[in-house]
Each structure stands twice: as structure tokens, then as C-alpha cells.
Amino acid sequence: MTDTRGSQPYDAYASGPLPGERRGQKQPAQPYHPPQAYAPPAERTGGGAAGGTGGGTAGGSEQHGVRVPRTGVRTEPRTRKARLRVAKADPWSVMKVSFLLSIALGVCTIVAASVLWMVMDAMGVFSTVGGTISEATDANNGGGFDLQSFLSLPRVLLFTSIIAVIDVVLATALATLGAFIYNLSAGFVGGVELTLAEDE
């Protein structure tokens, strides 16, 4: 018994795929691009142009699936504030700061006194006032009171230095005592409250 169908239908699939199979098409590999929240400037321009024909810039951005930030709304920065309370003042630190400040004030006082004396001497104030006082106090040609010798520059600087030293001692002592008194009062009333704010 012979096969009358022949081998032609089977020979057609010998070198090719079967009927249920498809040839796989190779696609070139492409780099991976992660999703971005905002599109580059070029894509934004293109999206706006496309949206102009389809309904404006918002429509173009929606077509590309890109979120565009709103630029028409003005946002004012809020000024942060902090409310603090001075609960205690360190007497040692207060004493050091007051001592240095009082020394600086004493030096400024000495310099100011010397400059003022030189200006008044150049204007002739001591000679004029001294002559008037010597004439008024002259008794039986005794010479009277000599104001220029009494208010000489070394004597003025000496008096000013003594006053500056006393000022340093008193200011330091009073500031330290004030720190102790403040700590005692802060224990009862809570201290001084301060409100700090950022510079705009």
C-alpha cells in the first residue's frame, strides 16, 4: 500500500517555522530613562506648542503626562519667630563682661579728657579764665589763684585716671550684684521673655 499524499507538504516546513510559531524579531537595546517629575525646557516648549492647537499649555502638558509648576501664584515667605526666656544669668560671665566694658569706658574717658584739654588750651580758655580769676583773688599783690598751673595736663590726666579706676570697680561690682538679684527675681516671676524673629 503506497502513500499517495506525497512528501511535499512536510518538506515545506523542514527549513522554516511551524504554523503556530513566529519568527522572533530582534529589537535594538535602548538605554533606560527613569520617569521625571518635570520635563526639560525643550519638551516643555514642544508640549506648549502642541497644547496650543489642542487647548493651551495645560493641554499640551497633560498630553505628555508632565506636571508643570504653577508660576502665577505668589508665595510670601513666612517669618519664623521664637519666644525665649532668660531664666538665669551667670554672675561670673556678667562680671567678666562688665569688667572689660568698664575698662574700655575708662580708656575712652581718659582720651576724651586729654583731647578736650588740648582743644581748650589751644583756644586760650585757660589763660583768659585764669587771668580773670587771678585778678579777682589778688589780695595785696599776693598773686592770686593760678588756674593754669592747677589745671595742667598731667594733673588733669591723673584725676581722670583715678575716676576711671573707681568707675571700673563700681561698674563691675554693681553688674555682678545685679546678676545675683536677677537670678533671685527670675526664680519667682520666671525671668525676662524675648521674642526672636528671622531677618527678612
TrEMBL record:
Please indicate if the UniProt record lists NADP as a keyword. no
Stretch list, region Disordered: 1-82
> Which residues fall in a coiled-coil region?
none
**A Pfam family it matches:** DUF3566
- Gly residues: bias regions: 45-59
Q: Which InterPro entries match?
A: DUF3566_TM
**Bilayer-spanning residue ranges:** 97-120, 156-182
Q: Which UniProt keywords apply?
A: Membrane, Transmembrane, Transmembrane helix
Name all DUF3566 domain ranges: 80-198
Q: What is this protein called?
A: Membrane protein
